[in-house]
Write a structure and sequence with these properties.
Elements: H1 2-5, H2 7-20, E1 29-30, H3 32-39, H4 43-55, E2 60-62, E3 66-68, H5 74-95, H6 100-108, H7 114-124, H8 128-152, H9 156-167, H10 171-187, H11 189-197
Antiparallel strand pairs: 1-3, 2-3
Length: 198
């Protein structure tokens, strides 16, 4: 019913939610017709919502290309990675006391890349404040992780090694593996930013 009463508001809130959840890849073209069809509205309120977001600097209007989700420069990618590793380190410090419950959960998880392992680690810390803050970061990282996996692979071997360490209760070893993964990602941030712009 809200859609009929306020199509602009509906389009704006839906686009904001999608952006917050990492729906769009940096540099991705935002096709008004496709977005309107997905939201279930005509193109006019979607165009108006994108114009509003462009005015706020949330999306970019590029002549001849229409609306584009902003590029993610290497510096911002590095900031996101630093935030994620910080969350992982806090979660690992909280997990040092979890013992058997952590080992059992890690044993059940299989075939995960390092991004999923880090998500798992934060989730297993079972800290509401950490979960809420990480949830916001995770949304911003979602598409970035997809691009990273597409370009560089999912680090399945290292993910398996990290889960094996957690299954043995070796949180210090898991922390070393997560730190190694982080250093590799940092070294590839410029390549990832370039790929996202292409």
């Amino acid at each position: 019913m809200t859609t009929r009463l306020d199509p602009f508001g509906t389009a704006l809130s839906r686009l904001r939610a999608w952006m917050a959840n990492g729906r769009f890849l940096p540099g991705e073209s935002l096709c008004i017709q496709d977005l309107a069809a997905e939201i279930g509205l005509s193109i006019t309120p979607v165009r108006e919502a994108l114009a509003c977001l462009a005015g706020e600097g949330v999306v970019q209007r590029r002549p001849g290309k229409g609306y584009v989700f902003p590029d993610l420069p290497a510096a911002e990618i590095l900031d996101l990675y630093e935030a994620q590793i910080g969350f992982a380190r806090v979660a690992l410090s909280l997990l040092a006391d979890k013992g058997h419950a952590l080992q059992k959960a890690a044993t059940r998880m299989g075939g995960a890349g390092m991004a999923e392992v880090i998500d798992f680690v934060v989730d297993q810390a079972a800290n509401d404040a950490l979960d809420a803050a990480y949830g916001r970061l995770k949304g911003r990282l979602k598409r970035l992780h997809e691009a990273e996996e597409h370009l560089f692979g999912a680090d399945l071997a290292q993910g398996a090694a990290c889960l094996a360490a957690l299954a043995r209760g070796a949180t210090t070893e898991a922390a070393v593996l997560i730190d190694e993964h982080h250093r590799r990602r940092v070294a590839r941030a410029v390549d990832l930013a370039d790929a996202c712009r292409a």
